[in-house]
Each structure stands twice: as structure tokens, then as C-alpha cells.
Amino acid sequence: MSTTDLIIVLVQAGILVNLMLVAAAYMVLAERKVAAWIQNRIGPNRVGPWGLFQSFADVIKLYLKEDVVPAAADYKFHLLAPIIAIGVSVTVFAVIPFTPPVDIGGTLYTLTMTPNMNIGVLAVLAMTSVGVYGVALAGWSSNNKYSLMGGLRSSAQMISYELSMGLAIVGVVLIAGTLNLVDFITWQSENMWLIFLQPFGFILFLITALAETNRAPFDLPEAEPELVGGYHTEYSGMKFGLLYLAEYANILASSCIMAALYLGGWDAIPFLDDAAILGFPATSIPMVIIGHVAFLSKAFALVFVFIWIRWSLPRFRYDQLMNLGWKILLPLALANVILTGLGVYFFN
Questions:
Q1: d(Cα 12, Cα 128) in Å, to the nearest integer?
Q2: What end-to-end distance do the CA atoms of the chain give, in Å?
Q3: What span, in angstroms and rounded, lies between the C-alpha atoms of 267 and 290?
């Protein structure tokens, strides 16, 4: 890799990390606003116009708060856990293709970090699985029974629902015949969005994504009535802020993956050729901007669904959560894979 390429990659990485952290911070504000709307309240409305600067005020407050570590906690691992959680959450975005390639002077470029990885889906699954290590480590290193129980719950929950999530993805992999996220979106642009062929797989992925991100009604690892705050009970200051941001970064990552796998990614109009309708070349800058806006619009619509579900459904009991994962979702995911395989075999 030349020096110029290295500088470009570092600049892209810096922009991506900062954008994702700002997006996660504003998702916290969106959560509070949507919760207020659902509960017929106003929500944050004091810091800046319509409360738009509330997230910056929250981050500054967390930076200024004292970092309290229990005397019996393992300080090194107590510090490492939030770093692992936010690091893995942000790394996932490096393999998500946000825009199509753009033609500049006869050469195709990507405006975002879009490595054309032939194992992109496997990379995403691997990184999302590693994210639970941060939660488990946070629970163990705090030397607190409530925190440890939250970390153990998160680990068991991830194992239970990761299987169903992987099987839900197998259905679209069988249809598109690739593990490359860019090829997934290209296939959908040329044919149809995969949600029309895999609606059940999409619902399975959405449910398992809720469990993987510890969102209600699957927020057992931090259940306040039982575990005070779960794995982040003994965290304060910016370390707590990083764990909190990691959850929202995971929500955004899951939404982006669903947009890429099931909703056509940057393809704005299903069943039709966007470039022909809009009158721009497929690799032109206007089409790239339109595709980028379309991708983000789908992702943020799914983020709204995550928030909506949290403030609409009560939390499961732990036995209900396990029964749903092993006795209902896993058999249904296996049935979906079998039916999809038969459909691909007989109907090509």
C-alpha cells in the first residue's frame, strides 16, 4: 500500500469513527424524543433549538463526572471492557457498503470505506459475536454479583440467538449466491429486494438483532428491577458513556446490515432501474448521493422500529427468553433454510 493510499484509509477511518459516534449520540436523543412522543410528553427541549444539543451536553457531563472504580474490581479489565465494546461496535461499519462506486475520470472510487470482501457477511457475524466479550468482561471485572449476572445473561443470550440470526442470513445467501455485501446489493438492484423473497427471514433477523443488542423486550442483561443496572452497575463517567454508546452503535450497525441484506441497500426504488428513471448514469455523483441517502433512510427507519418496540413491549422473563430462542426461533429458522433451499433448487 502506497503512502497516499494509507493516508486516504486513515482519513476515511477517522471520518467514519467520528460520524458513527455522533450518530450514536444523536440516537440517544432520538430515543428520548420518540419515548416522549409515545408517552405524550415533550422530551428534551432546553439545550439548543428543540433540544438538539442535548446529546453534546450529556457527553460533556459524562466527561466531567468522576470515574469511580470499586476497590475490589480488577481495574485493568474494568477499563478494557468499554474499549472492547465500542471498538467492536464501530469496526462493523468498516465493512458496510454505504454507497455505490462513483466514476471520476474513468476510474471507479468508493466514497466510503467499502472493502469488496468476499466474506463480508461472515466478517459482520464474527465481529458482532465478539462484542459480547466487552459486556461479559464488564460484568466479571466489576466484582459485583449484579454485574456478573448481567454479563452471564448477555453471554447466554448471544449464544441462544446468534444461531437463529446466522440461519436467517443463510436464506438470503442461498438466493443471492454470495457472502459479499456489495454483491448482495447489486443482485437486489438487478432483480428485487430480498425482503420480498425472504419476509420471514427478515422478521427472524429483526427479532434476533433485538436480542443481540440487548434491547427491550430482550434487555435482561441490564434489567433494573432485578439487577439494578446489570453489567454497567459499577460504571460511571465516560466508561459508562462508552458502554451506552456501544449499544446504540450496535443498533445502527444491525439496521445497516438489514438495509443491505433485505432492503436493497443503496437501491432507492424496488423492481425498477433507478438510473434509467432518474436519468443519471449509474456511477455518476448524483446517483451516488441518492443511493447514500436511500441507504441511510432505510437504516434510520429501522432504528425507529428498534426504539418503537422498546417503548411498546414489556420485558420477557428469562425462561421466556430462552424458550423463544431455542424452542421457537431456532426451529423456524431451520425450516426457513430448508424451504428456501428447496425453492432455489426447484425454481432456480
A1: 22
A2: 41
A3: 9
* Whole-angstrom distance, CA of residue 179 vs CA of residue 116: 10
CA dihedral 69, 235, 250, 95 (to 10 degrees): -20
Count CB-CB contacts under 10 A for residue 40: 6
For the chain, how are helix, strand and coil distributed in percent, rounded to 5? 70, 0, 30
Q: All 3 cell numbers of residue 336?
A: 426457513
Q: Which sign, positive or negative, has the C-alpha torsion 220, 222, 227, 231?
A: positive
Instruction: For cell 446468534, name the residue.
Output: 162
Flag residues of the chain having pLDDT under 50.
none
Asked if 305 and 180 touch (Cβ cutoff 8 Å), the reply is no
Task: Compute the distance between CA of residue 298 and CA of residue 285 in angstroms, rounded to an integer.
Answer: 20
**Cα separation of 191 and 272, whole Å?**
9
Among candidate residues 16, 21, 18, the one with its CA nearest the CA of residue 242? 21
| 333-343 pLDDT, tens digit each | 999 999 999 99
Domain residue ranges in the chain: 3-347
**CB-based contact 169:121 (threshold 8 Å):** yes
Q: For residue 97, give the 3-state DSSP assignment.
A: coil
Q: What is the pLDDT of residues 281-304, one digit of tens each?
A: 777 788 888 888 999 999 999 999
Closest to 21 in 3D by CA, of 94, 98, 117, 86: 86
Q: Which three cell numbers stand for residue 211?
A: 436480542
The pTM of this model reads 0.91
Scanning the structure block, which residue is given the C-alpha cell 468499554?
Answer: 82
